[in-house]
Amino acid sequence: MRNPITGPCAWHGKDMARSRRWVRELPPAALAEIDAALAAVKRRGLAWHEITAADFPLPSLAPLVADIADELENGSGMLKLRGIPVGRYAEGELRQLYFGLARHLGQPVFQNRRGELMRDIRDEGADVGKRYGQIETADGKGPFLSSYARTLSNGQLRFHTDRTDVVALLCVRQARRGGTSKLASSAAIHNAMLERRPDLLERLYANIWRSRHGEESETPDDVYPLPVFGVRDGRLTSHFSLTYIEAAQLVPGVPKLDAGQREAIDMLLALAQELSFEMTLEPGDIQFLNNHVIYHGRTPFEDDKSTGQDRLLFRLWLSMPNSRALPEDHRVLWGNVAAGARRGGIGQVAA
Prior knowledge:
The chain is an alpha+beta fold. It has a domain at 107-334: Double-stranded beta-helix. The chain is 28% helix and 22% strand. The strands form six sheets. Strands 1, 2, 3, 4, 8, 16 and 19 form a seven-stranded mixed sheet that branches. It has a four-stranded antiparallel sheet with strand order 7-17-10-15. A two-stranded antiparallel ribbon has the order 5-6. α2 packs across α4 and α7 crosses α10 (259-274). The longest helix has 16 residues, at 259-274. 42% of the residues are buried.
């Protein structure tokens, strides 16, 4: 018999929508310290990706950084930091500032097989599949887009996790309409399944095949088995993206999802919607999410470049020094399952 996941990570959206525990404000006095650190790295000619925490000293922000790290790992698993005045910085300066601040929190890891550490999240047009991965299908429904390509469109994103301890998104500009972040606690979903359909929950503790299409591989054939849920030392981890599961189903020889697995996945997605809430990001907000306990999605959006309302987020993936230990069978995804280990991100492929 499985046990429910306890603690503040097992929240319901209706409660979090009324809460402020996940909001932090950047102290106005800290801006002078940030500007001084930014001026120092500019004098030294450091590119944003070369910046370390030592290069970007923020001594007065140490308590806030520790609080953010604790809320992500031991609290609700999510946080919005407000107060970066994005309008007063050039784009290059903003990248330096963001990367320098994030280096105090964790170690950035690669987001694609080309070694990208910071990804611009924006609508890159109708041909994203051709550039970032698609599979031609014979069902007449058009190409199957990789998860990476879907992220760089203006379409809806289903609830999923990213392949890193923490994903951070700095909002530079918002769209004219839409693009709202949808968040759900995977711990609360786990507990609801345990209460309502423990038989289906058990199906998600067993291996389900995934594809690395759009990550390390340009084709869907690189597949691996991984459970959706795992627990070690009483702490949950959940890795879920239906797109990678669907891509694996297109590969000959991969075991097909049976009726129980499909029902379990359908229930997971229905519960994610039922237990979720929406977080709106304004320019200058940074959203931090712990992927082990948070599923995130996005509503579709519409840009209007003529009014400067073309959505742009800077995304970082962070390996966290205070991260939890993971079950041994999750090593296939994470590489290292020890607490506090540098892990996650996308393996690099030689050119």
